[in-house]
Amino acid sequence: MSAPDAETEKQSGNGKGSQSSTPHVRATLAETPAPAEPPLSSDTVDSPPIPPVAPPADSSPKAQPIPETPPAPKEKSYRELFDDFLSIIFSENPLGNRPALNASIQALLGSILKDHPIHSNYRVLVMFDKLTPMRQDTDKVYQALTALKETEKPIALVIHSGGGEVDAGYLISKLCREFSPEHFITIVPRRAKSAATLICCGADQIHMGSMSELGPIDPQVGDMPALGLKNAIQHLLDLAGQYPGASDVLAKYLDSSLKLINLGYYERVAESAAQYAERLLKKRKTVNEIAPGTIANTLVYNYKDHGFVIDTGEAEAIFGPNIIITNSAEYNMANALYNTLSSIESMCDAAGYGFYFYGSLNSVPQIYARKKK
Fold it and tell me: Which residues pair with 213 in a beta bridge?
């Protein structure tokens, strides 16, 4: 067969060459072995497995955990604070545990102020004394004033007093004005009688409420009002005028029982009280159309009874409406302090002790054992 014929037969697929070539190729592929993997070296076979390498330690400083702040102790309620006071005052020997007793009273007063933010406008002083303020009590006020760290705020003096020595009242008011020259107020939750009214004369404002009362400035000599003798003599003279026939009897009575020097002394005591009041009134910063001398004479000479009630309305007529301030936030604060101090006094009394308070709310309360009758 020629070459062209063989090529033609291969293309047509009918030639024997095309049929015999395919099996030969397949056999060749089937018989070709897979390439062998390279043999392991002796070093590879005997080596132990390599352990995993740990990541490098972080050398940067780590933030320390912030310790939890322990919760603040729960603040005691007013009732709980009062119970603390009761447990001490009714103990076997409360005066033997004075630090705790004093602290319990101071905590009660501090609790009251928290409910009356108006207190932050003032340096609050308290004069709570149902007895009679005396000269030594001025030292307590002075010590409280000098101990106060705050010096710019005006002084607010809460007064509850039935009266006392006129010169002590004058000094207390003068001290408050000295330490608070621009503005000084007094607050009367209940009573500020006689010498306590004199203290109020030095204030720019007197805060009062429905239960508040001032009183005549009626100095006492012994247990008798200084003006009482003068009034008694005036009454005898009036009787002599009504009954001329009894004039000789009345004259003999006066000659045997009255020393003229006493009459002069009593009158001078009353005049001194009027002078004290006028001097304090002149130092006020509040402008008032009522003259200080007029106010002083009214308080000293116009009332016949030492216990006469000068309520808010009458006080306004005497001092002027711009001096008397009624039912203010300051009064509400003072009234709350009075209620607490009055309760403390009642419990002390029931336990057999006396109580009074002079000074700031950090001052030491005065508690003493009463003499047994």
Answer: 191
CB of 158 within 8 A of CB of 118? no
CA of residue 35 relative to chain centroid, distance: 100
Distance (Å, whole) CA 94 – CA 103 = 12
Residue 283: Cβ-neighbour burial (10 angstroms; 0-12, 13-18, 19+)? middle
Going by C-beta distance under 8 Å and a sequence separation of 6 or more, which residues neighbour residue 79?
A: none
In the block, which residue shows the tokens 């910063």? 285
Cα 284 to the chain's mean position, in Å? Answer: 26
Tokens linked to 76: 């005691």
Question: Can you say whether residue 277 is alpha, beta or left, with left for phi > 0 and alpha for psi between -120 and 50 degrees?
Answer: alpha
The number of beta carbons lying within 10 Å of the beta carbon of residue 322 is: 13
Q: DSSP of 190-223, one letter per residue?
A: SEE-THHHHHHHT-SEEEE-TT-EE-----EETT
Residues 307 and 215: their CA atoms lie apart, in Å, by 6
Q: Are strands 205-208 and 184-188 parallel, antiparallel or unpaired?
A: parallel
Instruction: Specify the amino acid at residue 341.
Output: L
Q: Compute the distance between CA of residue 299 and CA of residue 303 in angstroms, rounded to an integer.
A: 7
Instruction: Tell me how far CA of residue 94 lies from CA of 16, 108, 353, in angstroms.
Output: 137, 17, 10
The count of other CB atoms within 10 Å of the CB of residue 98 is: 13
Task: Provide the token pair at 278.
Answer: 């006028």
User: What CA–CA distance (Å, rounded) separates 55 from 47?
Assistant: 23
Instruction: Write out the chain's pLDDT in tens, 373 residues.
Output: 444 444 444 444 444 444 444 444 444 434 445 555 555 444 445 556 666 665 665 566 666 677 777 777 788 999 999 999 999 999 999 999 999 999 999 999 999 999 999 999 999 999 999 877 677 889 999 999 999 988 899 999 999 999 888 999 999 999 999 999 999 999 999 999 999 999 999 999 999 999 999 999 987 666 666 666 666 666 666 766 777 776 777 667 666 666 655 666 667 778 899 999 999 999 998 878 899 999 999 999 998 888 899 999 999 999 998 999 999 999 999 999 999 999 999 999 999 999 999 999 889 999 999 876 5
| DSSP conformation letters of 239-299 | HHHH-GGGHHHHHHHHHHH--HHHHHHHHHHHHHHHHHHHHHHHT--S--SS-HHHHHHHH
